[in-house]
Write a structure and sequence with these properties.
Elements (H helix, E strand, L loop, with lengths): L1 H13 L2 E7 L6 E8 H25 L12 H35 L27 H14 L28 E4 L9 E5 L5 E3 L4 E9 L3 E8 L3 E11 L6 E2 L4 E5 L11 E7 L2 E3 L9
Antiparallel strand pairs: 1-2, 3-4, 4-11, 5-10, 6-7, 6-9, 7-8, 8-10, 8-11, 11-12
Length: about 290
Amino acid sequence: MSREKKDKGFISKLHHKYRLVILNDETLERKLSVRLTKLNVFIIAGTLGIFLVVATIYLIAFTPLKEYIPGYADFNTRMVLRELSLRADSLERDLRQKDLYIMNIRNIVEGRDLIDEIPDTVGDPAVFSIDELQRSTEDSLLRMEMEQAAQFDNTYFGNGIPGPAQTMLIPFFPPITGMISSHFNPAGGHYGVDVVADYDELIRSTLDGRVIISTWTIETGYTIGLQHDNNIISIYKHNSSLLKQQGDYVEAGEAIAIIGDTGLYSTGTHLHFELWFNGNPVNPSDYISFK
């Protein structure tokens, strides 16, 4: 009986009526009067709380505000990050390939061996020395085979590009006319021909192409290299000055440098001219008449 009385007493207290009155503090004038019960207050407070919870969930679920929640990862954002990561990997591979290409061009100009890949331990390709690598047995055999093949008069030396027997199919322009003082000798490390001519003679491009290197080195002095079609590269060393910059496009017969005697490897006023195909040296005398 006492518990029932307590329950009834609690319920009855919920229905007790109260009046909330708001008065003017100075005049004591009644501004607002509201009749309330404890039950009404609980209902109003509960309804307001539920509304706030529902509104918060809606804002988080259907508006961009959810992106500001710490630790929240949007699905679209993860997809974008994954795509960006793949693109970054692709760009890194492309950059490594370009760095390898530039390094091999520099090695050709400086008379060094070519490399197949850039080691991961190399931080700056500009200061990397080819002497730090060891040549593999397979690489040595391949180079020996290519050097021996370059000494023969083949009809074609790859991909349908004419060899010495069909030089008229590709009209090589003589870079300079003069006497050959040192012939092509890859076994001795001489990958081109030395042509002696008068001082201040103009050096001209042997084919249409774009300048890929225009620089000065201690060994070869003022050196310029051109990339031509069909994967052909021509190199011109020991010049007294260069007339073209890297990136310039030149036509066959256009002046690109002036003959000189610069670099430690120079033995007098002459042009050291090299011709490369698919990364391998070929004898320029088989394709060009320097007389």
